[in-house]
Amino acid sequence: HFFFTAMLFTYGRFLSRELVNTVSSDHLLYKLVSGLIKYQMFICYFLYISGFVWFILTLKKKTYKYQFKQYAWTHMILLTVFAQSSFTVANIFEGMFWFLLPASLIVINDIAAYLFGFFLGRTPLIKLSPKKTWEGFIGASVTTIISAFLLANVMGRFQWFTCPRKDLSTGWLQCDPGPMFKPEHYYLGDWVPHWFPWKDVFLMPVQWHALALGLFASIIAPFGGFFASGFKRAFKIKDFGDSIPGHGGITDRMDCQMVMAVFAYIYHQSFISPHNFSVDAILDQILRNLTYEEQRNLYEQLGEMLGNLCKADKLAACL
C-alpha cells in the first residue's frame, strides 16, 4: 500500500506533463487524467493517512515492537531506495544523456579504482573497506573526470541521447539540441606550445558541466558504496546477493548509482534546465490547469490577437 502511494506521488509529479501529452488526443481520457493530476497531492495524502490508520488498527499485543519495526523499515526503504531511484526515471525523460552519462561515470570510476588499487594500491583509504586505497581513489578520480569530458562530447552528438521525452510514447526522438549541445570554437594559440597540432578545438558547453558530474562521481558517489559496506558489516553479511559472481548482487552494483542519479537530476534542474518561461512550460500549465472549454477559448482569443497584429503590422510571418 505504501509502495503504491509513494509511486503515485513521485511519478505523478515527475511525469505529469508527459502523461497529459500522451492522452491529449482523447477528450474523455484527457479530462480524467487532468483531474487526477490536479488533485494528485490530496489523493496521495488520503492514501497515506488511510495506510497509517490501517496500520494502527492492525496492531496486536506482543507484536507491537515487530510491527513498528516493519513500519519503520517500510518507510526507510521507500526513502533510500524508491525515492532515489525515481530520480533515475526523471533523468531519462530529461534526455537519455542525463541518465547514461552519470551511470557510465560510476561504472568507469568503479573499474578504474579497482585497477589502480590492484596495481598501485599501498595506502588504505577507509576502515570500512580495507581493500580501498588512496592510490585507487585518486587514479579513479582523474580517469573519471577525463572520461566525463570526452564522453559528453560523444553522447552529445546524437539526438536520441539529448532530446527530452515529452510523452510516454516509444517513437524516435528529433529536436533542436539547444545551445548546450552545439559545439563552440576555442582558440588555444597562446595556451599550448607552438608544436601542438590542435590550436583550434570545438567543444560543447555541456562538456564543462560534465566535469562537475565527473567530480561528484569521483569524490562523493563512492561514499554511497562506503555506506553500503558499513550497512553490510553491521548485519555481518558480505554481499546483498550473489547473482553476479565475484561482485555480489544487483544491489551491490547500484549503491553509488542512487546517489549519482539524485545529484544529476538536481544539477540539471539547477544549472541546465531553463528557468525562464518557455513554450513547453506555458503549454504544460495550460494543459494542467485549464478545462477543455477554457483551452478552446484561449485558442480562439490568441487567433484573434494574432490576426489583428498581422493586419496592423503586415508581418511577413503571417503571409
Give a written overview of the molecule.
- This protein is mostly helical.
- Among the domains are: 96-272, no CATH class; 279-312.
- 68% of the residues lie in helices and 5% in strands.
- The protein contains 13 helices and four strands.
- The chain has helices at 2-14, 16-23, 27-38, 40-57, 64-94, 97-120, 134-155, 159-162, 205-219, 222-234, 250-272, 279-289, 292-313; strands at residues 124-126, 129-133, 184-187, 200-203.
- A two-stranded antiparallel sheet has the order 1-2. Strands 3-4 form a two-stranded antiparallel sheet.
- A hairpin with a 2-residue loop joins strand 1 and strand 2 (129-133).
- Helix 10 (222-234) runs antiparallel to helix 11 (250-272).
- The termini are far apart.
- Its main location: membrane.
- InterPro entries: PC_trans, PC_Trfase_euk.
- It is found in: Membrane.
- GO terms for molecular function: phosphatidate cytidylyltransferase activity.
- One of its GO terms (biological process) is CDP-diacylglycerol biosynthetic process.
Task: Give the SSE map.
Layout: H1 2-14, H2 16-23, H3 27-38, H4 40-57, H5 64-94, H6 97-120, E1 124-126, E2 129-133, H7 134-155, H8 159-162, E3 184-187, E4 200-203, H9 205-219, H10 222-234, H11 250-272, H12 279-289, H13 292-313
Antiparallel strand pairs: 1-2, 3-4
Helix pairs in contact: 1-4, 1-5, 2-3, 5-6, 5-11, 6-7, 6-9, 6-11, 7-9, 10-11
